Amino acid sequence: MVLNQFLILAAFLFCTGVYGVLARRNGVLVLMSVELMLNAVNINLIAFSAFGREVSGQVFALFVITIAAAEVGVGLAIVLLIYRNLHSSDLGEVDQLRG
Amino acid sequence: MLRNAWLIPLLPAVSFFLIVMFGKRLPRRGSEIGILAIGASFVMSCVAAVQWIDRVEGAEEGGGGPLHALGRAVAAIGEGQGEPAPHAVVEPVTRSVTWWQNGNVEFSAGISIDGLAVMMLVVVTLVSLLVHVFSTSYLHGDRRYTHYFAFLSLFTASMLNLVVAPNTLQLLVGWELVGLCSFVLIGHWWEDKPNSDAAVKAFLTTRTGDVGLVIAIIILFSAAGTFDMQAINLAALDGEVGHGTLLAASVCLLIGIMGKSGQFPLHTWLPDAMAGPTPVSALIHAATMVVAGVYLGARLFPVLFEGFSIERGGVNPMALTGGITVIIGAALAFVQRDIKKVLAYSTISQIGYMVMGLGVGAWTAAVFHLFTHAFFKALLFLGAGSVSHSGSHHSFDMKSGMGGLRRPMPVTFWTFMIGSAALAGLPPLAGFWSKDEILATAGETGYEAFLLVGLIGALMTAAYMTRCVYLTFFGDFRGHGEPHESPLPITVPLVVLGGLAVVAGFVNATLFDIEKFREWVEPTVAFPELDHPQFDAFGALLAVAVAVAGISIAFAYWFQGRSHGLTQRSELARRGYLFLENKYYLDHLYTDLIVGSIKGGVARASYWVNQHAIDGAINGVGRMSARAGRFAYDIVDQGVVDGAINGIAAGTGESGGRLRAIQSGRVQRYALMLFAAVGFLSLALLIFA
Asked: Which residues does chain A have within 8 Å of residue B672's beta carbon, measured at their own beta carbons?
């Protein structure tokens, strides 16, 4: 096992997440992509922590998981409200703030 | 007790939370907790005061209990001995805990008890206790009775916290809390729009001044490196801090004082604050809110002393602010119909005396005036409350709701008379001693102009209080319903305050060489050397004469109809009518005789001068400026200024039009920009680092 394997996996996950966030039109899928990005970061944190013999990275990962749970709660509530108001969860239609 | 003085502000604060949580379920709906807590605080303050006096006397003469001190005071009165001994150094009692630490800076909370703090503790707790008792009857059956008492407690606790604070940060906490509580209490009956408007106005106006205070704290911290007020004062006196810095800090402090203490030009919130319940007005004006500014000035006096070079005499911004306020406040008091607004403008004017006193270097006199003013102004406000509660049926309008109340309300009448006389500065009541001392010091420290201002203010004060007393208590009753005396919870505080308004002045009666107040209250550490003028018989006589003149003028004007009516006492029914007619006749006289003669001769002469001399000059100047104006318009305004403005506007419009495409409203487009920016920055980091 080498550190690079983990980092490459994480980078791949992260790029998938970024692609999802930018390209997906469905709000729920965008949120899921955000989760992918967060977990990519988690993998990095834990990998560095395990290879560097330093426990604080794992503690950070625990924090990130907690925050992610809270974030998804809020995010889903927002998507729900958007759906209720616009009868669609397509983010492309949410452009009321256009200048 | 001095070391445990932190209990004094803590008790009302605890009481606030207890009332909020349990008040509604108690038999008297929370008022008992408030009264109990304030009562305990008052007792502790008195104990602290006795111990402080003991400490001062002990330092001067080496030992001896409070009874000895009292005995010596009595002996001093009896013998009338001359010069008091020079001051021994009495350190304030301080105690603090570290609140938090940030780098090398330590933020602490604690107490610092000296004579000034002890005096304020006693005054605040006493007035607050009486206001609590008064309120149980005044607000009986009010919708938010419990809420009201909760905030009275918090109000008192905040002010006490401000008083004991050893550092500027803790002082600021108390300062802001006081502002918040006054906002809540002024808007107590917020269902009526004017009341909530008044509350918002008070909040915002005082907040304007607070900005000044915050800036002053920052300046002083960066200059002296500490929040501790005694250290700041020492640094200011030692010349460690540059004069320019001190001047800037002083100006900012003065702005803070203006806002809180209703000084010109930030005084406008005070009269509007009358929208709150009357006992709250008494508390705001006498003990907790407006005197906070004066207290701040007294606490950081060395900063102001050095910053404004008070020693030099002449004119300085602080004395000027106070002086203007004295006159402006008093003049406005003449034209009010609302009894509480008369008192409000009177407070503005009296606080002006205190600020002016600090400005001319009369520290002891200004603080002493704060002390005596607290008693008689609380008395007057509570008296006005009593009148509206039982006499005029919740009206404060002196002309349509009051008059002739001296018979049905004897206790209120006599105590109000005492308060008015004390305010007007008649000897031997409290106001005389303190006001005279401010004037005497102003005359001796090279501020003669302010001595004159003070005398004019005294004349006006005496006159408008006579008018107020006349309209409220003399003549015929003009309201409706049956006026009667107020119940005991209202009259007892009146009598207590009336007694204090009579005797409080003797603590520093310079005439009899009693200067106990100065000995006990004036700091001996970190304090500039100040002059303390001896009693000046001529000045005092002059002040009394001025006050009497003011009363006489107002008497001649307002009581004119009464002396007329006295001759026809049997025809009571016609008295009011005759009085009205008489007054009309007086007005007629003034209009025809005085205004008419001015209109005739003087007006014609001035018209001629106006047409020929002044107009010629004005026309010439006008033609010149028209020509200059045209040039300025054509070349400078149209060409340069407008060109620049139009250019900027066109540029802004153009760039806005291009940039609006970016503001697409689509979250994902924003996210794309975000990621692009992050990627770009990471690239830059990789390349350059």
From this structure: 22
Q: Which residues of B touch A (CB under 8 A)?
A: 660, 662-668, 671-672, 675
Cβ–Cβ of A94/B672 closer than 8 Å?
no
Domain that holds residue B575: 570-610
CB B49 within 8 A of CB B481: no
Same domain? For B525 and B390 the reply is: yes
The partner residues of B228 in beta bridges, in order of sequence, read: B167
Q: What is the distance of C-alpha B244 from the center of its chain? A: 28
Give the single-character DSSP code of A90. Answer: B
Domain-located, residue A2: no
The minimum CA-CA distance between A71 and chain B, rounded to whole Å, is 17
Chain A residues within an 8 Å CB radius of B671:
21-22
The answer to whether residue B320 is domain-embedded is no
Q: What is the pLDDT of residues B465-493, one digit of tens each?
A: 888 888 888 777 777 777 777 778 888 88
Contact B292, B132 (CB under 8 A): no
Number of compact structural domains in chain B: 2
Q: Return the residue of A nearest to B671 by Cα.
A: A22
Domain count, chain A: 1
Which residues constitute the domain of residue A77?
Answer: 13-90
Question: What SS3 state is found at B98?
Answer: strand
| DSSP 8-state assignment for residue B397 | B
Nearest chain B residue to A21 by CA distance is B668
Residue B395 lies in a domain: yes
ipTM of model: 0.82
Give yes or no: residues B450 and B515 share one domain: yes
User: Which CATH number goes with the domain that contains A69?
Assistant: 1.10.287.3510
pTM of the model: 0.68
Let me know whether B523 and B475 are in one domain. Answer: yes
Q: Do B667 and A91 touch (CB under 8 A)?
A: yes
Residue type for position B532: H
